[in-house]
């Protein structure tokens, strides 16, 4: 809703790239239609995470695609990222806003409906409904929003809603129709045989579903 123009959000997981070059996979995804990227690598040291963020920032700048950093404000600031994304067990959005007021995109994962009423949700720039469907990419999750949950949340808030978890070509259109503004995806792009084609097909599904209402 409003001024959130991003539609297809790649969330990284190098393991999901199946041994192919990490930056090649991401560049292919952008060529196919990914318009926002989150660096989310859970098994790196702080230094290795920062190095990857700096390299990724250079790549994304060439395509004018914003970089979001998962749960690491120092790295986000150091590499000049457009934003930061946090979940329930991370540093809360209210605290990040205070520490770094000019973060352009502060994203917050919503796992329970009660979170929508919080100050953390209020100060965030977009909310990620997590997960829409259970996924092997992240297994420590509590619920599945499904399309019914997205529809319910859409009635409650005007914030941009990013859907994440178990999204693929078979369910993308229905998630948009339920009220999501943007789809965030790991495996359906990173593990695809042809990441550019996978992104392009998902992007077409999103654009067509947006135009149909
Ligand atoms: N947060 C909620 S589900 C998820 C994250 C990071 C992983 C989504 O991965 P996939 O492979 O697109 O289901
Ligand atoms: Mg986290």
UniProtKB/TrEMBL annotation:
Cofactor detail note: Binds 1 Mg(2+) ion per subunit.
Gene name for this UniProt entry: thiE
Keywords of this entry: Magnesium, Metal-binding, Thiamine biosynthesis, Transferase
Provide the reaction this enzyme catalyses.
4-methyl-5-(2-phosphooxyethyl)-thiazole + 4-amino-2-methyl-5-(diphosphooxymethyl)pyrimidine + H(+) = thiamine phosphate + diphosphate; 2-[(2R,5Z)-2-carboxy-4-methylthiazol-5(2H)-ylidene]ethyl phosphate + 4-amino-2-methyl-5-(diphosphooxymethyl)pyrimidine + 2 H(+) = thiamine phosphate + CO2 + diphosphate; 2-(2-carboxy-4-methylthiazol-5-yl)ethyl phosphate + 4-amino-2-methyl-5-(diphosphooxymethyl)pyrimidine + 2 H(+) = thiamine phosphate + CO2 + diphosphate
Recorded GO cellular component terms are: cytoplasm
List, alphabetically, the Gene3D superfamilies matched.
Answer: Aldolase class I
Positions contributing to 2-[(2R,5Z)-2-carboxy-4-methylthiazol-5(2H)-ylidene]ethyl phosphate binding: 135-137, 166, 186-187
Question: What EC number(s) is this enzyme filed under?
Answer: 2.5.1.3
* Top enzyme class: transferase
| Main function | Condenses 4-methyl-5-(beta-hydroxyethyl)thiazole monophosphate (THZ-P) and 2-methyl-4-amino-5-hydroxymethyl pyrimidine pyrophosphate (HMP-PP) to form thiamine monophosphate (TMP).
Q: Which PANTHER family match?
A: THIAMINE BIOSYNTHETIC BIFUNCTIONAL ENZYME, THIAMINE-PHOSPHATE PYROPHOSPHORYLASE
Stated name of the protein: Thiamine-phosphate synthase
Residues the record lists as binding Mg(2+): 71, 90
Q: Report whether Isomerase shows up as a keyword of the record.
A: no
Name the species this protein comes from. Mucilaginibacter paludis DSM 18603
Its required cofactor(s), as named, are: Mg(2+)
